[in-house]
Amino acid sequence: MRAVGQDALGGPEVLRVVELPRPVPGPSQLLVRVRAAGLNPTDWRHRAAKIFLPDPPFVLGWDVAGTVEAVGIGVTLFAPGDEVFGMLPYPHGVGSHAEYAVGPARAFVRRPDAVDVVQAGALPLAALTAWQALVDTARVRPGDRVLVHAAAGGVGHLAVQIAKARGAYVIGTASAGKHAFLRGIGVDEPVDYQAVDFAEAVRDVDVVLDTIGGDYQLRSLRTLRRGGLLVSIRPVPAEGLAEAAERLGVRTAMLLVEADQEGMRGVADLAERGLLRAEIAGTFALADAARAHAVGDGGRVTGKLVLLAD
Question: What pTM does this model have?
Answer without folding.
Answer: 0.97
